[in-house]
Specification:
The structure is a single chain. The chain is of the alpha+beta class. The chain starts with a helix and ends with a strand. Helix 2 crosses helix 6. The strands form 4 sheets. The protein has an 8-stranded antiparallel β-sheet with strand order 12-18-17-16-15-14-13-19, with helices on one face.
Length: about 375
């Protein structure tokens, strides 16, 4: 193999940079991320995403299976998502690059054909491949497993599920891109004290409605949870559910927050996914499942409320960036900032465990936290 060919073949063998455990820097690898919705992927179409700073082609083959490939042709770096789906000489489904027609199997990323080769040029095309990512699909979501590199260990199980709750397709979906590193997005997501200031509206709460709150927390798989409790009396939006709602809020690495509300025999499950696009952008994907009739009756109003919340958080992110541009030290206090501090502990523990090749041990301990909001 010639030198240029060797470089092309070795592109996907290059290891990813070591992740940084510092706050506001680096990404978490070796975890399942939500890439998008099942409805985002149509059979026979190619979609380009960026996740953890990596270009990813996501598609659905003609059998309905979801696949993911690195969206860079190793020949001349054209995006494979600009190509087309076709079949090679064996009948296998492939993505054909739009630049020179190189064909890569959707199942494993192996190059199966280079049209410019002539018969007497013996060349093992299967020595070239693009990176293929493990994928999964459940509850209307598409998941992708992001390892440190193509030779790093794959997933040891399926993506996290909230089984037995409000099955089927989501009732409501909203998404928005924030100009923030995922760590700052997580800190904002798990911040209980900003609500009366950032989210002031009659149907939620105001600065004047603040009062002391006490919540019990316990460790959970790859995260922690605020154990089931009655919503705070100044969280007026819960009243539309009627009855006596009880909610549990849990967080799990890399950036997944579930809120499970039970009202009698009815349920609402809200999942907020923080998807790192690159070092400076994070996608917020809000997904709600429910069997409560309020979502059929008041869906336009609920959607408007969710959009309002996201827009308010986005506005605060832009303000915060004005200060973060000067890289100031940040002050974290107990108990209001404890969840953000727990996230930083989880991040450091996960990176250390992956680097040492040992099982992850959750560093979070049960605690009773108090704050005013």
């Amino acid at each position: 193999m010639a030198e240029g060919e060797a470089k092309s073949a070795a592109v996907e063998a290059t290891a990813a940079p070591a992740p940084s455990a510092g706050f506001g820097r680096g990404f978490l690898f070796g975890l399942w991320y939500v890439a998008g919705l099942s409805t985002d992927l149509k059979p026979g179409r190619l979609a380009r995403f960026e996740i953890l700073g990596e270009p990813v082609l996501l598609g659905r083959d003609r059998t309905g299976r979801v696949y993911a490939l690195r969206d860079i042709c190793p020949h001349r770096a054209a995006p494979l998502s600009a190509g087309q789906l076709t079949r090679d000489q064996t009948g296998a489904e492939t993505v054909q690059c739009s630049y020179h027609g190189w064909m890569f199997r959707t199942g494993d990323g192996v190059c199966s054909r280079i049209p410019s080769l002539v018969d007497e040029q013996a060349f093992d095309t299967e020595r070239i491949r693009v990176r293929s990512y493990p994928t999964a699909e459940s509850q209307g979501l598409v998941w992708i497993f992001m390892a440190e590199g193509p030779n790093a260990p794959g997933p040891d199980g399926p993506p996290p599920l909230f089984e037995g709750v409000c099955g089927g397709h989501p009732k409501l979906v909203e998404r928005m891109d924030f100009d923030a590193h995922v760590d700052h997005a997580v800190a904002g997501l798990m911040d209980p004290a900003h609500g009366p200031y950032v989210h002031q509206q009659w149907w939620w709460r105001s600065a004047a409605s603040q009062h002391e709150k006490t919540k019990a927390f316990e460790p959970r798989d790859l995260g922690f949870a605020m154990v089931r409790h009655a919503p705070s009396r100044n969280s007026r939006a819960y009243r539309i559910l009627g009855g006596a709602p009880a909610t549990e809020i849990s967080f799990r690495l890399p950036g997944l927050r579930w809120e499970h509300v039970v009202v009698g025999t009815r349920q609402v499950l809200a999942l907020t996914c923080l998807i790192p696009i690159d070092a400076n952008r994070t996608r917020i994907l809000q997904v709600i499942w429910s069997d409560h009739p309020v979502f059929s009756l008041l869906k336009p109003f609920i959607r408007a409320g969710v959009r309002r919340f996201l827009a308010q958080d986005g506005g605060m992110v832009h303000l915060q960036n004005e200060g973060l541009a000067y890289d100031p030290p940040l002050i974290w206090i107990d108990d209001a900032d404890r969840q953000a501090k727990w996230y930083q502990q989880l991040k450091r523990a996960w990176i250390a465990a992956r680097a040492a090749g040992r099982p992850f041990v959750n560093p979070i301990e049960a605690a009773l936290l108090r704050w005013r909001s």
